[in-house]
Structures
1.
Amino acid sequence: MSGELKMKVSDANKNQAESLQGILYDLIDLALQTKQAHWNVVGPRFPVLHEMLDTMTAGFHLNADRVAERINALGLWPSGQAGAVSSKSALSPLPEGPQAGEAVVEGLSARISAVADSTRKRAAKIDDVVTEGILLDIVEEMEKQRWMLNVQGM
Ligand SMILES: [Fe+2]
């Protein structure tokens, strides 16, 4: 399989794909970290947080899929294997072991903010309304997830 597509891939598409790839690494990492929190959260808010973190994981995976397949649609090939994500994600890992609900909310909120902010910045530099629209949808959803995470248990 040569990987040759029957379409010409412009430099503009390559630039967009490069930007999308950076977001993809971060979104996959965010999904993995949210699942880690689902398994390791402890304390009186466990039932709600455990459930919420699973729903959030699924949402981040869906958004990662949307970004990856936009790379495909632009004529390029997404990278999403563990080794690449590990070395290229901009996020620092969560601490290992059990984490109190408050620490999970704080740690994940900070990471959601980091990915939402970098996605918004990348979207502003992309000169394609379709890709930009996808990225802004993702930012909207991440900011909503951050709010929902923060207000539960207040
Ligand atoms: Fe589970």
2.
Amino acid sequence: MRVCGFCNGPGVNQEHVWPDWLRKVILESRAAGGMKHFHAEIERGGETKKFKSPKLEMKVGMPFESCNHGWMSGLENQVKTFMTQMVYRGDKTLLDPERQTHLMRWILKTAMVYEFTSAAAQRKYFSDAERLAFKERFEIPQNLWIWVARYDGVRPMHSVQHRAPKSSDSPPRIYSLTLSANFLTVQVFAFRESEGDLGQVARATKPERLLQLFPASPDWMSWPPPITIDDEALDVLDTRFVKVLGGSVPRRVEI
Ligand SMILES: [Zn+2]
């Protein structure tokens, strides 16, 4: 029997990677702009499937039903109000330290769930112990960065995950995920100690387009950053770690 990826409890379910409330916000915003159907592209097992989707649906086979209605829905409720404002029209949003913490946790939770969209045989970057420690105490894995940006372009939902090196013998040691939900783009980057100080790559990030959400500063933060990224800049963002660290082209999902 399959068990939950966070608490090891029973309960297998097909869940949406993107929570329903967030899909609704994006659909309403795009519908207001006259958009009714979306071209979706999903890569499964090396094969890219294209289809038209009116609902922006993308499901994940990760079994986490027992957690979904508990701490995870708690996280959704903590971010829903201010994230809606960011996602719907990309309006200026003040992030106090509490909001920063909630948003950072929501993004990390989404990344951990996102890893389960690929085949079960593929090794995950985040370990069982890290997922459990996050669920129990919101403990953050080492060597992790999160940024937030504002994007204005044709893609209502977009995601690219990169894990390296790809090997069936050992888990990946480098991880990056870029996610866009309408006007809000987030990026996660993490690496294992054995890889040396890859933090220098993260620390070199310029703040014009990307605000650093984690490691956090004690100050209030005003989102968005000065420069909004367009489609071309989003492509650059997707691959910035791949280019620096080497590796194959990451899986890309456009919805
Ligand atoms: Zn669970």
